[in-house]
Amino acid sequence: LVAYPLIDLKRHNISPRNYVCLLEKSLIATCAKYGIKSMTTEHPGVWTTPEKKIAALGVHLRRNITSHGVGLNVNTDLWWFGRIVACGLEGKSTTSFEAEGVMGKSVDDVGKVFVQEFANRLGVEE
């Protein structure tokens, strides 16, 4: 699942750091809806353990308008991640909903949950 929200942070009175926290909390809540316990660590992204990353996060701002966003592994083929050092973090691995035992969920299904979690935290009704 790739989500690139375009948000005017000034309009919503959100600092860049709070925006990153909003994204992280939305991802953690999305995982929780499917029974996956996740967290933040000292490294960017969202993790199921300190060694297994389930979501990446990257934010770009220009004149307080966000671009870029998040990547959440739902049913991603993780084979390629074994061949690279993701995010430059030696000894860390990547996981997904399927690898965590949540089978049969589509990116569409999970995307709808993420959008709702994100909107709730942003204070958007629809």
From TrEMBL:
Keywords: Acyltransferase, Transferase. Residues 1-126 form the BPL/LPL catalytic domain. Its EC number is 2.3.1.181. Gene3D superfamilies: Bira Bifunctional Protein, Domain 2. Pathway: Protein modification; protein lipoylation via endogenous pathway; protein N(6)-(lipoyl)lysine from octanoyl-[acyl-carrier-protein]: step 1/2. Pfam families: LplA-B_cat. The keyword Acyltransferase applies. Belongs to the LipB family. PANTHER family: LIPOYLTRANSFERASE 2, MITOCHONDRIAL-RELATED, OCTANOYLTRANSFERASE. NCBIfam families: lipB (TIGR00214). This is lipoyl(octanoyl) transferase. It comes from Cryomyces antarcticus.
